[in-house]
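Renewal narrative, Specific Aim 1. Our central claim is that a sequence can be written position by position from structural information alone. The example that follows is taken directly from our test logs and has not been curated for this report. It begins with the structure tokens describing the chain, in the order in which they were read.
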């Protein structure tokens, strides 16, 4: 059985709740603090493919940088959004949970259980 990989920010309250849920259920997982490590283009495109969505669906719209960069404009292409997300990991929603060839945005955190 493939292990879970959690892309998170350790100080994020939703990520803390997800870790508690997984720990309570004794689920092994690998944690990746993508705010510290960053995401490269291949990694981000791979996550989007596994989720089955485009970058706009994982854009943190409440992040002030979205307005600063004008990313709410529907005319911004997916490639442009991805470039901004690579340069600014805070623009990517969290936590993202991966198991094998499937991934999802764990909001609410209980959604992660769909991958078990």
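The sequence written for that structure reads:
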């Amino acid at each position: 059985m493939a292990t879970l990989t959690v892309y998170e920010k350790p100080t994020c309250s939703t990520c803390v709740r997800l870790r508690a849920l997984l720990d309570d259920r004794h689920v092994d997982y690998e944690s990746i603090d993508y705010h510290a490590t960053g995401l490269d283009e291949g990694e981000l495109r791979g996550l989007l493919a596994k989720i089955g969505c485009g970058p706009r669906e994982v854009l943190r719209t409440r992040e002030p940088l979205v307005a600063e960069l004008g990313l709410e404009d529907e005319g911004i292409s997916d490639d442009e959004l991805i470039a901004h997300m690579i340069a600014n990991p805070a623009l990517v929603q969290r936590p993202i949970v991966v198991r094998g060839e499937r991934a999802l945005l764990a909001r609410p955190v209980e959604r992660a259980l769909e991958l078990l």
